[in-house]
């Protein structure tokens, strides 16, 4: 089975916004806008378009919430957090745990929903 190549458009989603592309000749286009770049993408269908925009907006919102939560911790605080994982015997995290999330991680889009650079 051939593995698809992964493209990282932006390192930090907290700096980005997602919006519908206007005044373009193509259907189902949307933009991921950062302070430095604007990425225009095109989905294959309206359903895929809506799924991408929703997933990206949720991912940005979650990254902002996680960042805000991390900033509320002070140095020396032993409370487990993404920056201070639990320690000691029996302390584990799994890839799906909220304590093991990266701020730049977005929800995984279904393989049925693909978008490409325009």
From TrEMBL:
Keyword Nucleotide-binding included in the entry's annotation: no
Q: Which SUPFAM superfamilies match?
A: PH domain-like
Which one Pfam family would you cite for this protein? PH
Q: Locations of Polar residues compositional bias?
A: 71-81, 97-118
Source domain of life: Eukaryota
Q: Domain PH: where? A: 1-61
Q: Does the keyword Lyase apply?
A: no
* Molecular function GO terms recorded: GTPase activator activity; metal ion binding
Q: Which key words tag this protein in UniProt?
A: Metal-binding, Zinc
Which residues lie within the region annotated Disordered? 71-118
PANTHER family in the cross-refs: BLOWN FUSE, ISOFORM A-RELATED, CENTAURIN/ARF
Identify this protein by name: Arf-GAP with coiled-coil, ANK repeat and PH domain-containing protein 2
């Amino acid at each position: 089975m051939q593995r698809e190549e992964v493209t990282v458009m932006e390192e930090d989603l907290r700096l980005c916004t997602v919006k519908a592309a206007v005044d373009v000749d193509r259907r189902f286009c949307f933009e991921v806008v950062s302070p430095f770049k604007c990425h225009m993408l095109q989905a294959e269908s309206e359903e895929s378009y809506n799924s991408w925009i929703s997933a990206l907006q949720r991912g940005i919102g979650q990254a902002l919430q996680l960042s805000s939560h991390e900033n509320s911790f002070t140095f020396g605080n032993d409370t487990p957090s993404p920056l201070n994982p639990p320690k000691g015997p029996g302390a584990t995290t799994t890839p799906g745990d909220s304590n093991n999330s990266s701020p730049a991680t977005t929800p995984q889009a279904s393989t049925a929903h693909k978008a490409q650079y325009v």
